[in-house]
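Feature request, filed as a ticket because there's no other form

It would be nice if the structure record came with a short human-readable summary line next to the tokens. Right now we just get the raw output. Example of a typical job, pasted below so the devs can see what we mean:
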Amino acid sequence: MKALIIDDERLARTELRHLLEKHTNKVEVIGEASNGKEGIKSIKKLSPDVIFLDIQMPEIDGFEMLKKLDDIPKVIFVTAYDEHAIEAFKVNALDYLLKPVDPDRLKEAIDKLNTQNEDEFESNVIDSRKDRKLNINDHIFIKDGEKSFFPKLSDVRFFESHGNYIKVYFLDKKPMILRSLNSLEERLDENDFFRANRKYIINIHWISKIENWFNGGLKVFLEENEEIEISRRQAIKFKDIMSI
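Raw output as currently delivered:
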């Protein structure tokens, strides 16, 4: 599959080209462009199957560039900013990668590129996520009041239920989303997240220490010195899943 890299940063183009060299059996880089205007010319001249497109570029950004095209190739956005994710989904982007590009996330994007048919490419990226569990490599969009966030699930330490809302703990942020803990649990990969009790779902990769607790329960200590109790019932399940 022929690919074109469009980014105003030379080092970013070089780094992405280097990462794509590991996937030459699936993707062939046929050119580069350093801005939107060059990108339009290169697309018309080279007819790539997919473009790896930066968003914030001088003169015209990635979105404006797409609007000027009659025939748009498949698009994988590669950007340093997470606030454009929803807009990217609206233009049917195949994927949205954050800089610095994680090799595993790049592989996922390329796998999508090579496995989805044309009808699937026309579907919204968000819809394709509904058919699978979300794992720690996925990002989630959160809008809390006037603020928006796009954290990677690997950075989320735990989720805490507050009535009809859930508080999401990542980095130094604690935004709220309107959702039940039960419905969230159904979306999360059990290999990464565990329902500790009626109020908490924890990211097991953040657990630093575990102690026995009252009535056969457990207490887990997370890397940020946070403590969460695992109920007796869930402790039995936790030991069964995690034991060798």
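Something like this underneath would help us a lot:
Residues 117-126 have pLDDT under 50 and may be disordered.
The first strand starts at residue 2 and ends at 6.
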